[in-house]
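Exercise 7 asks you to align residues with tokens for two separate proteins.
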Amino acid sequence: MLSPYFIYITTNEKRTVLYIGVTNNIQQRLSQHQFDTQHAKKSFAGRYNCFYLVYYERFDSIEMAIAREKELKKWRREKKDRLIFSFNPDWEFLNEQLV
């Protein structure tokens, strides 16, 4: 069975910066972002401390996930905020809720 693919949005603690990515292992990717934040600071997520998950979508195909990621990256911040709010009204950090 193939792993599902995810597009996800992470933010920093104060929710001022958004990072959009795609992965087939969301827990591992979030761990990488957290490690980069604490140690490397070379990636965008690492520099801006974006490892708090606030939004995600699941896909069966990498092509569909990448297309959705590209679509979201073109959006203005206000539209991304509305998307997150519709999924996660309190902007809770969802890192621990994923299995």
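Second protein for Exercise 7:
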Amino acid sequence: MIADPTAPPRASMNDDRSPLLTLISCVSCDRTMRLETSYPDSRGKDILQYRCGACGRIERVRLVRRTWPARD
């Protein structure tokens, strides 16, 4: 499911439709950025690229997945 870029901004950025789509707000215009691409980096971690539909700003974020410590 992809967020509607023409929808008016909402007061709450938390919705349960897709958590990856609402992780980032644009620092320039304070609109929710849309997930554009996802690809692995050289260390195997995912790089998420977001784009603001209003101003075109691009942000890249490295996704860090936490693991539980191993029990002895």
